[in-house]
Amino acid sequence: MQYLHAVSLVVPDYDAAIAFYCGQLGWQLAENIDQGRKRWVRILPPGADQGSLILARAEGPDQQAAIGNQFGGRVGLFLATDDFTRDHAAMLAQGVTFEEDPRFEPYGTVAVWRDPFGNRWDLIQFA
Q1: What local confidence, expressed as pLDDT, does residue 3 receive?
Q2: Cβ contacts of 40-49, under 8 Å, gap ≥ 24
Q3: For the chain, first and last CA: distance in Å?
Q4: Burial of 33 per CB tally in 10 Å (0-12, 13-18, 19+)
Q5: Were 81 and a residue from 49, 87, 104, 122 both cysteine, which residue would form a disulfide, CB within 3.0 to 4.6 Å?
Q6: Distance between CA atoms of 12 and 64, rounded to whole angstroms?
Q7: Which helix (H) or strand (E) holds 88?
Q8: Domains of the chain (ranges plus CATH)?
């Protein structure tokens, strides 16, 4: 068996990213291990038991330049939900910036949002 365990997301600061994802959005801080000059920080969306995000603090100008543009300006992260209306409303209440109103596609209900670091996400409830 194989599965995608995690995806790394380059952020400017561990604590700012933890504050947004775990504080504002209510994600679970699964691991936060000090490794000296860096940390192993793994977070999971509410109710998830796999499919985590590794928060990686940018080091050096190349990594700093990639913050918010890791996917070349495209949506590169997809947050699936079992209740789009609930989660969309909760995210709006927490100050999350949506780029568009929810739209209905053949595959489900979706809306693009950005995290505070410029990364574009889809909030999606599959049909």
Answers
A1: 87
A2: 41/14, 41/17, 42/6, 43/18, 45/79
A3: 26
A4: exposed
A5: 87
A6: 7
A7: helix 84-93
A8: 1-67 (3.10.180.10), 72-127 (3.10.180.10)
Identity of residue 106 = P
Q: Looking at beta carbons, which pairs linking 42-50 to residues 24 or more positions away fall under 8 Å?
A: 42/6, 43/18, 45/79, 50/3, 50/5
Structure tokens at 34: 């000090």
Q: How many CA atoms lie within 13 A of 52 on its CB side?
A: 18
How high is the mean pLDDT in each 10-residue block of the chain (127 residues)?
Answer: 92 98 96 95 93 96 96 96 97 97 98 97 98
Give CA–CA dist 82/117, Å, rounded.
25
Q: How far apart are CA 123 and CA 127, in angstroms?
A: 13
**Which pair of structure tokens corresponds to residue 46?**
């509410």
Count CB atoms within 10 A of the CB of residue 107. 10
pTM value surpassing 0.90: yes
The pLDDT of residue 50: 85
